[in-house]
Amino acid sequence: MAKELEPIVEVEGGDDAKGSFMLTTVRMGKANIYSYAAAKFNKYHEIYPEKYIRAENETDEEYNIRQLHLMEGSKINAIKTAYQEAGKKYIIKYQGVFVSGVIEDMPAEGKLKPGDRITAADGIAFKSSDEFTSHVSNKKIGDTVSLTIKRDGKKKTIKLKVQPFKQDASRVGVGISLVDDKSITTEPEVEVKTDQIGGPSAGLMFSLEIYNQLTEGDLTKGYGIAGTGTMEEGEKVGPIGGIQQKIVAADKAGAEIFLAPNEGGKSDSNYREALIAAKDIKTEMKIVPIDTFSEAVEYLEGLKSKK
User: Fold this and answer.
1) Residue among 74, 75, 246, 269 flagged as catalytic
2) Are 206 and 195 in contact (CB under 8 A)?
3) Which of 47-61, 98-112, 127-141, 230-244 has the lowest mean pLDDT?
4) Distance separating alpha carbons of residues 86 and 109, to the nearest angstrom
5) pLDDT value at position 59?
6) CATH number reported for the structural domain that contains residue 136 in this entry
């Protein structure tokens, strides 16, 4: 589906727009006989093997937690990008790392669980999951790492011995996947309501809606503008899944412009896949390739206002 962002994003004292920015989302669920039939008769309904969607041995709980944390990270990157581009104040606070998954038959199994917040390793506080991973991977087989965690509001210490990963014996660890735990405060304040949405794919559109409310004028120029793409460090727009389904959703919602990740012009980029779907459904919606947030803003600033 395609959903207007103005009711979801609220910047204190922000400008209104004549047009609208829309995020596009793909719904997923366990396949049954009805969804199987729908996929057989509808080109843009898909059935995937579960291993294509979830990590190996990932539970429902782990998958849902991972998606929600990806959304939280996406929101923070989107807010940071918009405020940075608009020249407004923001502060990012790092609080540790979240456990998003636990690998079977590794030391963390039964000791850590998705949602645990790791605040320190061997007494050292880290500012990113990369720093944490680097610290642990520098240990030798059998070495112990002491993790300070918070679970259900309580702090505790867990000691684990590192061991090699089955998939890559040259690497050692405790067997967890991680996402950064950070928060952002801004001036003016911004609220992004995403209780029912997971994953990182709305990052670009969040940034554009926030930026439009922060700055004078109206980037939409009166158009209905849909799009997708992660918002990564350095304003880079990253690729997402389900691009062709999102083209169908945006067209049904009446969008006139769709911003698609260009991936540096790759032959199999999201943009190229979007063009294929757009041609197939014979939409009049304009598909625009985007590599960076600044590029998206520049394109929109160059639009003539809709009469």
Assistant:
1) 246
2) no
3) 47-61
4) 45
5) 78
6) 2.30.42.10
Contacts of residue 142, defined as CB under 8 A and 6 or more positions apart, other chains included, come to 161, 162, 163
Number of domains in the chain: 2
In a domain, 257, yes or no: yes
What is the widest separation between alpha-carbon atoms in the chain? 70
- pLDDT by residue (tens digit) across 64-118? 877 777 788 888 999 999 999 999 999 999 888 889 888 889 999 999 988 899 9
Residue 102: domain span? 92-182
Give the span between the Cα atoms of 44 and 259, in whole angstroms.
19
| 201 flagged as catalytic | yes
Q: Is residue 131 situated within a structural domain?
A: yes
How would residue 289 be classed by pLDDT, with cut points 50, 70 and 90?
very high
Whether residue 288 contacts residue 203, with contact meaning beta carbons closer than 8 Å, is answered with no
pTM: predicted TM-score of the whole model, two decimal places: 0.83
Altogether, the residues listed in the chain come to a count of 307
| Domain final residue pick, 182, 198, 220 | 182
Rounded to whole angstroms, how far apart are CA atoms 101 and 116?
10
246 is catalytic: yes
Of residues 129, 201, 207, 269, which has the active-site annotation? Answer: 201
